[in-house]
Amino acid sequence: MSGAIFQGKWRRLRDRATAATQDAAASAIAVGLSWLLARWLAGHERPMFAVVTAVICLAPGLPNHGRQAISMLMGVFTGIAVGELSLLLPIGDSLGATSLRLTGVTFLAIVLASLWGQSAVTVIQAGVSALMVLTMGPVAAGPERLIDVLIGTAVGLFFSQVLLTPDPLKMLETGARSLLSELAQGMLLAEKAVRTGDVKQAQQAAQQLGAARVKLMALDGGISLARDSAHWTLRGWRAGPKVAELAARYDRHAARIYAQGLILGDELYHALRDEPGKAPAPIADLLHLAANNLADPDHAHPMDKGRLAEIVSVIDPKAEHWRAVATQAVALSAAGRQLLALPAEARSAARANSPK
Hints:
Number of domains: 2
Mean pLDDT: 80
CATH class of the largest domain: Mainly Alpha
Distance between the termini: 62 Å
Low-confidence stretches: none
Helix content: over 70%
Largest sheet: none
Number of strands: 0
Number of helices: 15
CATH topology of the largest domain: Methane Monooxygenase Hydroxylase, Chain G, domain 1
Strand content: under 5%
CATH architecture of the largest domain: Up-down Bundle
Shape: elongated
């Protein structure tokens, strides 16, 4: 058991490192480039803010690097402006006056930055920038820092918008395949339960199908990222309304597919519990085919309504749960193919509408 636990933890660590590799490499290269540009263009001896900005813009785990860069820049502008204006107030440099100035500047910078309606980095950078103007001086933390931030942001946007622009359609397709693969595992357990007539295995199949909720939530996250990408990346701008339309369709189809999986698991459990011995021979084969279609939709074997009618015709008319299992298996397989066909439809529509 300890070996299995160790392997599971190692796999999670490996997956995290793999997921962070591309963004980490981009951040590292951007740091070097930002340093060189700030030294060459601005003549800054130690352009710390340029390299820090590059990391903040491109660090792994951010939902959208382009939005992060713009949000940070807006926060820095706001904070420096508030900090510079606060120096015009003739309240003196005593301990109490300085403390009062710091308190007021922090509050005002954060409130004004929140009006932009951007991410948390905007208000954080606004507050920090205002405080740096007061504590480090307007020259070092004002124009000089602003130039460094502009250089770091420009490098971050170059990487996120030109070199590493995410494909919103690909994000949606990856999430959809993950959801279908999870449902396929539940369908294979359902097939095994039918062949053995084991009610406990039917329960396990229902639980596995229900566990696909995690993948559905991940797909929901991908849908949100795709919508965000349509506003904050060059590729998203080109796709325009198509991305929003496709995201909405994914949202509807994915929720329906998950619901069909839940219904199938529930009906299978009741079928084996309440209608034992009434399972028609083709049901297990049907579940196997549906599972394969979900696991490998690129090589799916469509199940038409005629085949479904043929299977249903040999089911005892009183075995309502078995009829529901057959119906949901076919519907789930068809819905999976339809879900993965959405990106191809969107790309075809985009090519058809593009200027010749």
